[in-house]
Structures are given as structure tokens and as C-alpha cells.
Predict the structure of UPF0102 protein HGG74_12265.
Amino acid sequence: MRPKDILGRHGEELAAGFLERSGQHVVDRNWRGPAGELDIVALEGATVVVSEVKTRRTPDYGHPFEAITPAKVHRLQIIARQWLRAHGMDAAGLRIDAVAVLDDGTGDPVIEQLKAIG
């Protein structure tokens, strides 16, 4: 596995723990549909929350949230609807979030969440 992929998986692990501690129940990870992959799918009450996770060691090349473009959000919406259909669920309670993880390996990682990005 490439170092970038290892960092991404590490960030997703940290993000999943963060979301669980914040009251979400993670029900799926790295789900792949026809249009792409969802990092984390969780339930928050009756709401299905899809979280796109971006991990960086440093903010030297921009904050992780900057990597989530409007085109990426649109694609996440499509993939999220595919996940809902595959699981026989309704899109009425769907939310797309973003989670940024900054972890240089020298201290506690910084984890931020933006709710309802799309």
C-alpha cells in the first residue's frame, strides 16, 4: 500500500472514532458503488450521514477541506443515493458531511467536522 493510502486509512480510522464519540453510529466504511466510494456512512438518529474524510500530515498544501470541490460534493450525493438504494432506504434523511484530519504523528491529531456540505 502506498504511503498516501496508509495515511488515508489512518485518517478514516481516526474520523470513525471521532464520529462515534460524537454520537453517530458507523454502519459502513469504504463502500464502493458504480459512481465511486464513500468513506464513512453513519446513522445519527434517523439521519443517514455520509462523511468524506480528508487527511493531511500538515496544512502546507492547504487545509484538507479545500480538497472537497463542488464537483466532489455532487459525486458524493450520487454515490450516497446509490448506497441508500442498495440498502432499501429513503433519501429524506440524508446529510453529507466532511471530516478533516491533520496528523503529523508528533502529537494529538486535529479533527474537524463540517456538517451538511451538500
